[in-house]
Specification:
Layout lengths: L6 E4 L6 E3 L1 H12 L3 H10 L2 H6 L5 H12 L5 H10 L1 E3 L1 H10 L4 E6 L3 H5 L1 H4 L1 H7 L3 E3 L10 H10 L7 E5 L2 H9 L3 E4 L3 H10 L4
Parallel strand pairs: 1-4, 1-6, 4-5, 6-7
Antiparallel strand pairs: 2-3
Helix pairs in contact: 1-5, 6-12
Length: 204
């Protein structure tokens, strides 16, 4: 089968790596002395992380606001240490992406601020090595998945066409958003199933 797909666009956390919020919270609590419940509220309950991911806050403004919510100073190094602890690469999924990249363009679109992508070599070295500069945070497009502008902005940056792009994500809503935006979509469950899908499409 000849596939019409020219670009494979991967989500990062939940596909190319595993993400553990509890570990992130525990590490930041150990660094700052702030209670874990306060950290969970500050990052997610307050909407702060979502605002940063949507490009509403610069990295420095985000860190300042996080410190204000926790009544302590949170440095970039503090944040990076906790974020690094939360990430475990998914070697099997990365191997499939590398195989697909032998014949097709591959890239990453992740719901994150530029704090993640600017420091990807430290936070997630295998993804940084494999994808290079083609790792895009949602904040770059002033919206988060599943908003259409997030996918379409990323595809445009890559010089690709939506209908020639396969988007791979572990979240139903994000896959549906990609399809609504005119991309092909696939819901990731595990590397074995992804391998079957890529072979079915003739992408590996």
């Amino acid at each position: 089968m000849i596939s019409p797909i020219g670009l494979l666009l991967f989500d990062m956390e939940g596909v190319l790596s595993h993400y553990d919020r509890a570990v992130r919270v525990a590490r930041l609590a150990a660094i700052t002395g702030a209670p874990p419940d306060a950290i969970r509220h500050a990052i997610w309950g307050s909407g702060l992380e979502a605002r940063a991911d949507a490009g509403e806050l610069s990295p420095d403004d985000y860190l300042t606001a996080l410190g204000d919510l926790l009544n302590c100073r949170v440095t970039r190094d503090d944040w990076l240490a906790s974020r690094h602890a939360s990430i475990t690469p998914n070697d099997a999924a990365l191997a499939l992406a590398a195989r697909a990249g032998e014949r097709h363009r591959i890239a990453v679109l992740t719901n994150n601020s530029s704090l993640v992508t600017d420091h990807l070599g430290y936070l997630n070295p295998p993804v940084a090595r494999l994808f290079g500069a083609d790792v895009f945070p949602s904040a770059a497009f002033d919206a988060v998945k599943p908003a259409a502008r997030t996918y379409l902005g990323c595809v445009a940056c890559l010089g690709a066409q939506p209908d020639a792009t396969l988007f791979i994500d572990d979240t139903d809503a994000n896959v549906a958003g990609a399809i609504d935006a005119g991309l092909h979509g696939y819901r990731f469950t595990d590397a074995d199933a992804l391998g079957d899908e890529l072979r079915r499409r003739g992408l590996i």
